[in-house]
Design a protein that fits this description.
Four copies of one chain form a homotetramer. Chain A is of the alpha/beta class. Chain A folds into two domains: about 5-15 and about 260-345, Aspartate Aminotransferase, domain 1; about 20-260, 3-Layer(aba) Sandwich (Aspartate Aminotransferase, domain 2), CATH 3.40.640. The first copy, chain A, has helices spanning about 20-30, 40-55, 65-75, 90-95, 100, 120-130, 155-170, 180-185, 190, 230-235, 245-255, 260-280, 300-305, 335-345, and strands spanning about 5-10, 60-65, 80-85, 105-110, 140-145, 175, 205-210, 220, 285, 295-300, 310, 315-320, 320-330. Chain A has a seven-stranded mixed sheet, with helices on both faces. Chain A has a four-stranded antiparallel sheet with strand order 9-10-13-12. In chain A, helix 6 (about 120-130) runs parallel beside helix 7 (about 155-170) and helix 12 (about 260-280) packs parallel to helix 14 (about 335-345). Chain A is globular.
Chain lengths: ~350, ~350, ~350, ~350
Amino acid sequence: MDSPKKIMLQSDYLEGCHPNILKKLYETNLLQTEGYGVDEICAQARELIKKHLKSDKVDIHFLAGTTSTNQIIVEDCLRAFEGVITVESGEINVHETGAVEATGHKVIALTKEYKLNPEVLDKFFTVQENDPLKEHTVRGKMVYITFPTEFGLLYTKKELESIYSVCRQHDAYLFIDGGRLAYALACSDRTGIKLEDLPNMCDIFYIGGTQCGAMLGEAVVIINDELKRFFRFYTKQRGALMAKGRILGIQFCELFKDDLYFEIGKKAVDLAVYAKEALIKKGVKFHVDSYTNQQFMVLSKEKYEEITKKFGLFYCSEDNGQIICRFCTSWATTKEVMDQFIESF
Amino acid sequence: MDSPKKIMLQSDYLEGCHPNILKKLYETNLLQTEGYGVDEICAQARELIKKHLKSDKVDIHFLAGTTSTNQIIVEDCLRAFEGVITVESGEINVHETGAVEATGHKVIALTKEYKLNPEVLDKFFTVQENDPLKEHTVRGKMVYITFPTEFGLLYTKKELESIYSVCRQHDAYLFIDGGRLAYALACSDRTGIKLEDLPNMCDIFYIGGTQCGAMLGEAVVIINDELKRFFRFYTKQRGALMAKGRILGIQFCELFKDDLYFEIGKKAVDLAVYAKEALIKKGVKFHVDSYTNQQFMVLSKEKYEEITKKFGLFYCSEDNGQIICRFCTSWATTKEVMDQFIESF
Amino acid sequence: MDSPKKIMLQSDYLEGCHPNILKKLYETNLLQTEGYGVDEICAQARELIKKHLKSDKVDIHFLAGTTSTNQIIVEDCLRAFEGVITVESGEINVHETGAVEATGHKVIALTKEYKLNPEVLDKFFTVQENDPLKEHTVRGKMVYITFPTEFGLLYTKKELESIYSVCRQHDAYLFIDGGRLAYALACSDRTGIKLEDLPNMCDIFYIGGTQCGAMLGEAVVIINDELKRFFRFYTKQRGALMAKGRILGIQFCELFKDDLYFEIGKKAVDLAVYAKEALIKKGVKFHVDSYTNQQFMVLSKEKYEEITKKFGLFYCSEDNGQIICRFCTSWATTKEVMDQFIESF
Amino acid sequence: MDSPKKIMLQSDYLEGCHPNILKKLYETNLLQTEGYGVDEICAQARELIKKHLKSDKVDIHFLAGTTSTNQIIVEDCLRAFEGVITVESGEINVHETGAVEATGHKVIALTKEYKLNPEVLDKFFTVQENDPLKEHTVRGKMVYITFPTEFGLLYTKKELESIYSVCRQHDAYLFIDGGRLAYALACSDRTGIKLEDLPNMCDIFYIGGTQCGAMLGEAVVIINDELKRFFRFYTKQRGALMAKGRILGIQFCELFKDDLYFEIGKKAVDLAVYAKEALIKKGVKFHVDSYTNQQFMVLSKEKYEEITKKFGLFYCSEDNGQIICRFCTSWATTKEVMDQFIESF
């Protein structure tokens, strides 16, 4: 455990939650509501999100935790012998202790690139469809992408449209893991993608709360009708239907009452990019060119050890004596902290 | 959805959480901590619980939700072909959408009685051990009981000791689901069982938070060393390792800082028994003789419909035109509400 | 292991296979064929069975072993949270080491009776459909019956029609496990059910080979179109798509080339009933009134021990010092052996 | 389906079985034996194999089919969150429809090379052990190799010893899939590995029957005591405990009564290498340098189409207009057929 005096920058889930949410928890605490997410607070949260999505036709479910959410979506979408296609660095492939495989499904890691390329995807499907021994291989039926990606990268509207188009051509679902969606949406000038575009760009996605200022919670948005009917059954069977479901509704009521979700994203992204640019000027190298709240530096071992005496960083990997490590900003990060951090280099 | 004016008594998870917990959430909100339950708040909560248990040798993990907790414990304890023994009315057998079977394990429902009888259990194990075709049947390896039971019943110290003794004789684990443990502990005069006794009476159990005044959270206590090593792996793989694990720590810090957990239990139990006794005097029949916060009435259809116009009750089943239905008390129930409820009969 | 001199009557899979099958194995041994069941021998076997079924619209797949077949059919039919309804004594509930649960599905044991009653079934579905907390319980979506049952009992045409009618009313599949179908078909005078009737009486069933004179093999007949498309994928994923699939085809080519399957059933049934009647005359009690190749006697311990010195019997259970035990006939049983057996009482 | 006149060389499971096995099936057909593999024929087969292994301490189980065998071994060895390490081309990773994932376990594909390199393996384990977030990644606990590999390659004694040594250093099991073991053993001059060496070189392996002249069957050899106790339970639960288990025993009785297994391997390997050398002289290119019964040619599309008019080949993949395709020899292949095949180029 880190000493309390060290400033922690390794992730975006190191503080509690945005104060507005706490306030709402207080205000509603004595209100009696039904359990399991059929209460009026959840209903209100759903309405607020639909308004932002400019769509009435989607189903919205509130879950807690990204790994659990990924599992339930995979189970909702796939038959036993079908698999999920992702990049090698995909969260579900590397950091979830085989949670997807634990549901019985193969994760098909298509490429070492950090973003999924529609052409690579199209080729995969074509080979699959021409395979004379179809029954002997896992059928890739769902494509999984994170937005932003695990390394903070972004898809443009055109890229995402291409991927979705390939999916539809080959009768596969597109699932967008938006665990950190606020930070991607803060870059809509760069990507061309607004929240309201997502219902036209995939079959199912989720709006991450836990890593974007909520105490806990992810809002699953189901667009494709085929995927709607049994979602609550899968949720309950996986132990993810919260008794006090209102707690999740409260998070999203506040995040989407006005534009809080977007403000949280923007603030964190601005601070992260501010730090990145300052550090580049100081000669620090970055592993990738991220414009989101996650930044991946490449430091010498000595530098890494020096910095981590004062600041918590997330260790990713070591390559030829160089260490790839992450710093993150969140709703709670201040400019003062970022300045101190920049200073320390 | 019930109208907001109706007083809801169908369960004990219809309000937010005890105000002390909200206060602690506020106070710690800006504190930076590690994720995934290795933070100092969780550490503190573990220490407080151990103090109450008067045991230093147990492992404690914080999870959210009883179904999820049951699944993870089952996975931690059993090999693929092993099963869980329970009564037919056991929560895992009837109200979790096959969550245990979804982990691949059979739930072996031993009896229609609401409490597990040590002799019935012993006979089951004896038959199993003498079966010449052992490999053709599921091996009952874990016994599951709820305390209090699904119908609010209690085991006495002697009964629990007998069950545990049978388990040990037959090389099986005893797992106590304490989703509503506070209400059983409030009856220790009646049962002879205090919290500190539990580490001597089973292999693994949990202290329910969600249904006992917390916003969410269950504290798993692992006593048997065989079950300790990999619990976090199972938790993560099941999507149940919360990123902001401190939220769970905070619940249990408050519940066990002083005697809050016990006070919550006592208050609810007292009010429930108060209502039960008053209702009996008014001629209301009860399905079982419960001394905990769950009370099961047997009402005519007409009476049921009349009462549920003003009070939310949990419908259990119908038998010969009579309806079995539950009312519950919680940390938030007041004597005024109970008096109104009694009055309405 | 039993001494070689003891005559074994405990089951119907104690010898090799009908000599016609061995002959066919010899004749085709050097023929080259495709693997995995797409060869011309399997194609021929499918045609022969379809001719007997008087139906061209069914899909037929050859598998090896009843437990494996049950698992694959369950996986083909059910979503994760759906379960299989059966009687308590159902093979899948008691003698397959939790094979169905291992696929993640609950086995819902509806009754202690040995045969499923359409009214009990109808009531179950009605309760299920009216359950306000549907997502909290396993959804019974498939009904499983064995024909003949585990205790050798038979359904009449009317009974089976009632069960199937209840299934269709409640949007559930009916699956008939015909592991010992030959022996039920030998009783068509009594039941009114011929092989050609089955495609009108359920959604999926199988024609057992292993226990009806084949070396190994069960022929799955899929009637309901919804269940056809992916059967081979499930089969392969479960490790049940035999490389030398022709071996299975050969079994069914011989069994259905002429009327061998029916002759095997009839011969065994006649001998079993012959022995039953003779034994009843000698005062032996039977647990149920079976007209198939399985007969369940109720013997005193002393008698059981005396008889099992000379004849292998299958021990079922003990009740008040009486032993329920089974004797079986098969394609290989002779009248001489049955006479010796009768004599010994 | 191929026309009957075409000579099929695509695999080694296209004919029935070695005539000695058929003969034994005939001779034992009327013998009565216990079911489920506890009969005297299986016992005898176990003794014969143990004699060849020069080891009395191993457990031997007979299963049918390699995919099923792989699944059961994986389940026997691993906890839910543990995974199997293999090369990308590993059978379990590409050709079993996600059978391993269907048991809940991740297949960790370590390298694009066709053989597993002990150094790569060692590095993987070292990274795993130093991972500060162990619970967030699948724990590689078993190493899977095929011998010979999917592309007919061989490990030398030294290579296998290195791999096993790395496994033991890192507390992982080594599992050798010997689906085509006969053909590797036929190359013991080249590898230095005899059958009797295997119990010293891994924790568990199997001796393939189906692809080495048997009608069906694989003999699992368990060396590590930790893996012995529950193997039959896993087998039954997976639907793989054959009722007429003696059929499997018969296969291995014949294969190991004398040296039939070794003769089958040698004959096929000699013919394959004979053809390879002749084809190389004729200018045919090979994808890898295999010395076993599987040979992988690289043909132009035109050549591939020309040849496959007369001979069945297994299509592997296409790369830049060149086709990689396999021909195999088996116990049934004759020199005449090979000469015809060579001639056709």
